[in-house]
């Protein structure tokens, strides 16, 4: 039994601090680092990459919409041409910092409402996949398990990393509930969900039912008020339950 723990981070801006990214690093295996569109700035991006290197955490680009005030969680009617160019801009920026650290990007994960747009909305799915395939087809595509974009990516032979968002609510149809502002959740509750995902492939819904999920990675949001406590509990509970915690390359047996 293996699982990856991914966390959204690098979302501070200037003197405004959001989340304790370095404190999270020892407990996670993949970092989704903001690429300065929905949050973050170049100094924060470089600093977070250096922390990930220090703690041996794999790095992914957390691409978003150009909407800092709305934290990338408000729908924007961008064109497919804008989506492509915005993605390339963000991926290229991160790769510049990674190059100087002697690191490679592991995955791409959309942020906020962009996650739903490229994962589910017909207008954007193929442009999203085309851009990743054109830029670097070795990148894992991290999206919600079972979404349309992942299904098409698998058919194309692209690398996919289906995730389960263990600190968000799910409805009975397996849809996760977007929160404009992250709320604190019980660390024990989130940890129990992580273990159930890893060992049983199930998660509880907002109405108390259990549904099937198939994910290789579980997500914790770094902007929640008690993210470090949650990450600590999740890591300890998984390891105490006999689950190996590893990044995506380790999960899929890649070096």
From TrEMBL:
This enzyme's EC code(s): 3.5.2.9
The UniProt record lists the keyword Hydrolase: yes
One Pfam match: LamB_YcsF
GO biological process: carbohydrate metabolic process
GO molecular function, one term: 5-oxoprolinase (ATP-hydrolyzing) activity
Record keywords, A-Z: Hydrolase
InterPro entries: Glyco_hydro/deAcase_b/a-brl, LamB/YcsF/PxpA-like
Record has Iron as a keyword: no
UniProt name for this protein: 5-oxoprolinase subunit PxpA
